[in-house]
């Protein structure tokens, strides 16, 4: 196991699901962890107490507030942008404002957070976005904006890897397939359809996704940048 003793880690969207698993993983390896939340203050407070981390209320759709928050925190060794929303539905029915909000959270926030963090991040820092296997395979209707938002992260890490590479800062996107969270419960109504697209027919756990995030954040991964990693039971194979 890597050790993140003495490292400062910020997880955007850490109160529940995959983000909470990432918070637990870094905290268990000795990092000083901060995480943001928006709608789940009770979950955030419980997780902060459990992991001795710090919870900060911050809306990832508010660009200026997000940049100001990250700038105020001082140098981060690791930034994980996990906050994301699904926004499923018929594109003919979804109000444009909802789509714009999805793009602000799923696309704009990762970009602005990465740039804000990179201003003070020490050489060798790590930036990781949580994307989705839907960037590579979208076998269901009603998720065009979501898959577009997650596909954008693949291009974003390629470009920012070039911008930050001289400082040894790596930036990658982890692309989960179906993962057991409130967003996509393992016993939800679509589970059989989703498992039908997979070689290993089960939801991942948040801890499995957090394991790849920890690897990419550790010293062995210093040569990995601008890359997208599917962790999806073969969903996109
Ligand atoms: P959940 O809905 O279970 O949790 C989402 C987390 O993001 C919560 O902690 C939530 O905080 C936070 N969040 C959402 N919107 C905002 C916002 N505007 N500002 C700050 N925090 C916010 O989702 P998952 O854990 O399932 O998903 C996490 C990431 O993984 C997302 O980016 C998602 O797209 C991606 N993903 C998930 C998959 C799955 O099958 N579960 C598959 C592929 C990708 P709060 O409740 O406090 O608002």
UniProtKB/TrEMBL annotation:
Belongs to the short-chain dehydrogenases/reductases (SDR) family. Gene3D superfamilies: NAD(P)-binding Rossmann-like Domain. Keywords: Oxidoreductase. Residues 7-179 form the Ketoreductase domain. This is Oxidoreductase/short-chain dehydrogenase/reductase SDR. The keyword Oxidoreductase applies. PANTHER family: DIHYDROANTICAPSIN 7-DEHYDROGENASE.
């Amino acid at each position: 196991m890597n050790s993140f003793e003495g490292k400062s880690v910020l997880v955007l969207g850490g109160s529940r699901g995959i983000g909470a698993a990432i918070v637990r993983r870094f905290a268990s390896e000795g990092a000083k962890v901060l995480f943001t939340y928006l709608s789940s203050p009770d979950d955030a407070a419980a997780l902060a107490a459990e992991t001795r981390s710090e919870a900060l209320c911050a809306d990832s759709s508010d660009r200026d507030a997000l940049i100001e928050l990250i700038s105020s925190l001082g140098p981060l060794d690791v930034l994980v942008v996990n906050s994301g929303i699904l926004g499923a539905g018929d594109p003919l029915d979804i109000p444009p404002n909802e789509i714009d909000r999805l793009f602000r959270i799923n696309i704009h926030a990762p970009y602005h957070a990465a740039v804000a963090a990179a201003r003070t991040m020490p050489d060798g820092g790590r930036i990781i976005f949580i994307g989705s296997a839907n960037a590579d395979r979208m076998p269901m209707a009603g998720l065009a904006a979501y898959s577009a938002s997650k596909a954008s992260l693949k291009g974003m890490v390629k470009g920012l890897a070039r911008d930050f590479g001289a400082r040894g800062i790596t930036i990658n996107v982890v692309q989960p397939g179906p993962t057991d969270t409130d967003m996509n419960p393992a016993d939800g109504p679509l589970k059989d359809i989703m498992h039908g697209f997979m070689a290993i027919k089960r939801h991942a756990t948040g801890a499995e996704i957090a394991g790849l995030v920890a690897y990419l954040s550790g010293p062995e991964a210093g040569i990995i940048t601008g890359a997208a990693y599917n962790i999806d039971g073969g969903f996109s194979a």
